[in-house]
Amino acid sequence: MAVKMDLVDARTTQRLLAWLIDFLPVLVLSVIFLPMIASKMVASLSAPQLAGEIAGTYILYSVLALAYTVFLWWWEATSGKTLGNMLLGLRTTTLKGERPGWGKTIIRRLLIAVAGIVPILGSVLMVISNHFDANGKKQGWHDKVAGTLVLDIKAGRDPLTTGGAAGPQSFAPPQQYAPGRRFVGEPDDAQGTSGGVIDSVPGAVRAAAPEAQESVRPRPSARPKPEAKIVEVPSTEAAADPDEDLGHTQIRPQSPDAVHLLFDDSQCLDLAGSILIGRNPSYSDGDVGVHLVALDDPDRTVSKTHLLIQPGVGSVWVTDRDSGNGSCIVDEDGNVRELVPGKPEQAMIGHTVYFGDRYFQVERP
């Protein structure tokens, strides 16, 4: 199944059906109250005392119809949803893929109502006027005036939950790395790693005992590879914080959006902050508050500094650091996204990130 990244305009029939569904509660109220009002008006010709009842019934009908209309407009203004939109998988948005808000919603809805001066046909023509749109956006006349779109989120992406018209990339952290930039203090490739502990980065705190710095826990039901160990080396920024001194274990509250990384050797790494992973990772300009995590890779398929991983909301942002063998994200349906060096990409819960011959899966703790 292909990833739905495009925005798909709603078809004319979908728009018309959605509008009719939205109008249905008012129609039901009219069927109930209008005959009642009409019969009382006829009866009042011979019984004038019924005039008060007629007024009361009409006020009740008007209040119920108005309350539903206000609710419908509020729902569309704040979420792009209406009763018809929900049933047909549509969303009303701005041209930027955002919630329309009260102003745009009132404009488009009032234009449909004003078109109703020509009974039934006027409003219907306004609703389906997107059929005559020549600019490819399939906007109705009321949408052109209000600056709105009606999108089919079953056939395409829902911009209200995926970063607007720009897509998920609008949620990406700022890019702080340019491909081809030499890492500060990066050793020659021939130097490699030494027991998985980094000692070649200026100012970095060397781990006296790799076991004390280990930040992963093996799963008891899996068979770990003895030659593959993840070792975290604290950055200078972390060491400068008095609350982060070596030898102190800090208890942090678990975030509801926290994730951990399950590696191919069945070890788990809790992601509490940004990390750089590779055979022998080192910092580049702009890496602030980033921890280094070294991976043993005897076949050297993983670059010295391969990936920057940053926590997101129920996800992680992964940036390839101009690695030799590249990186990619594979979702639960098997769709593959190749990472462009320097460009953050979002990996959701259940997605797998491949780098060299290694990989990890994003999971909830």
Estimated helix fraction: 25-40%
Silhouette: elongated
Main beta sheet strand tally, sense and closure: 7 strands, antiparallel
Number of strands: 15
How far apart are the first and last residues' alpha carbons, in Å?
Answer: 28 Å
What does this structure look like?
The chain has 365 residues and is of the alpha+beta class. It contains 8 helices and 15 strands. Strands 3-6-5-15-14-11-12 form a 7-stranded antiparallel beta sheet, with no helix packed on it. The chain has a 6-stranded mixed beta sheet with strand order 4-8-7-9-10-13. The chain has a two-stranded antiparallel ribbon with strand order 1-2. Helix 1 (12-44) runs antiparallel to helix 2 and helix 2 packs across helix 4. The longest helix has 33 residues, at 12-44. The protein starts with 11 loop residues before the first helix and ends with a strand. Mean pLDDT is 77; it is low at 181-229 and 233-254.
